[in-house]
Records
---
Amino acid sequence: MRINSGRWNTIKDFDDLMKARGIEPALPGYTEDDAFKWCAECITQCLPKAAECGVTLAVENHWGLTRTPEGLLRLSKEIQSPWFGVLMDTGNFLENPYDKLSQVASKTVYVQAKTYFGGGEWYTLDLDYPRIAKILSQAGYSGWVSLEMEGKENPDLAVPKSIQLLRKAFGV
C-alpha cells in the first residue's frame, strides 16, 4: 500500500511547491527531526494492522521528508519491519535520478514507473528505463512495476506506448 510521509504545507499552492522542486520550509518552531519522529511513530502504529491484513506499507519518494534518498533510508532504517519498505517512483527524483534510485533500490518493495509522452504537467524527465531495470535487477528486485503516465498526450495513445516501453526495458 502506497503511503507518503506528508509535508509541512507551508507552501499552499501546489504549482508553487513544484517551482520550489518540492522543497518546503518547516513550520515555525519545528524541525525535520521532529517530523521524522512523528512520521516513524505513525507508520509504526499502522504496522500491526498491515501485518494482520498481509499488506506491506511502502513509503514513496515523494515531497516532504521522503523527497531524498536520505529521507527514505532514514525511515527505512528506523522502521524495521517486514511489512514496511520503499515505493520507488522513478519520476520523483528530479536531479541525478539514477544515483538516487540506486541508493533506494535495495529497500524497494514496489515501483511506479513514470512516463511523460506529450510532456509533463510540472516537469518532464527523459528516463532511461533499461538503466532503471538494471539498477533494480542488480538490487534483487523482482516485484511489480506499475505505470504512472503523467504526460499530456492522449492516454489512449500514451498508455500503450508506455506499456510497450516498460515491457521492453524490463524484459516482459
Note: The first strand starts at residue 2 and ends at 3.
---
Amino acid sequence: MKKNRSDCPISCSLDVFGDKWSLLILRDIMLRGKVSYSEFLKSEEKIASNILVNRLNVLEAENIVTKKVAAENKSKFVYSLTPKGIDLLPIIIEIMDWGAKYNANCPRRELGKKIQEDKMKVLTDYREKLFKEFT
C-alpha cells in the first residue's frame, strides 16, 4: 500500500489524479469519448507514449479506469471509467469551467457554455451517460 505524503484530503487526491496527463486522459474519456491507447496518443497535447502508459497504469491501479480487451480487436485494449472514475466528473467540469472563465487563451467551447447555463443538468446527464456505458 502506497504511503501518502500527508493526511490532507486534497494532497491525497492529487497523489492519485493531480498531474496534467491524468486529468487530460480523464477528460478524453469523459468528454471526448476516447477509449484506446492510440486515441489518447492522438490528443492535441501530444502525450509521450511512456507517460501515457504510466498514467493509464496508475489510473487502473487506483481503480479509476478499467482496461478490457476490445470486442472487435482482441489485440487492442479499451479503457472505461469505473464508478470511482465517474465520480471525478464534477471535478473535471469545474476545472474546465474555471479555465474557460479565467484564461483568455481558452475559448469557451459549446460544452463550457452549456455548463455555465445549467451545471447540475450537465453533470446529471453526463453521469447517467457514463454509468450506462459502464454497466
Note: The mean pLDDT is 84.
---
Amino acid sequence: MIRKGTYVLRIDLGADAEIRVGALGTLSFSKGTYVYAGSAMGGLDQRLGRHLSKDKKVRWHIDNLTMAADSVSALESYPDFIPECSLAQLCMECGMTPVHDGFGCSDCRCRTHLFKAEGQSLERLVDTAGLRPFHQSH
C-alpha cells in the first residue's frame, strides 16, 4: 500500500554553515533547528526514508540541508493530511521564522517551505497539526 501525505522534517545543525543550494546559490544557516514542510503524494514512506538517508543523489533544495545536518527526523501528517502549503503557513502561525525565500517551494506561490524553529514553536506545530513521528518500519 502506498501511503500519501504531507510531512515536516526536523533538521538540526550543530554549527553555523554555508551550504550551496542549487540555483539559490550559497546560503547561510545559523546553528539551530530547522523545519521543512513537504508532501509525498507518490509515497510517504519512500520519500521520508530518502530524506532521512545520507546515501542519496542531491535532487531537491532540502537534500543539500539534510546532507549537512547533524540529525534529521520526520513527522507525518497522515491519513487526513494537511496540504503542504497549509502546513508551511502553520509553521509561521506557530511562531517559526521563514528562512531563505524560494527554498523548497518552486512549484507553488509560498515564500518558503523552510523555517527556523525556536522556543516551543515546533511543539505548537506538532499539537496544532496533529503530526506523528515517522518510523521507517511501515
Note: The longest strand covers residues 5-13.
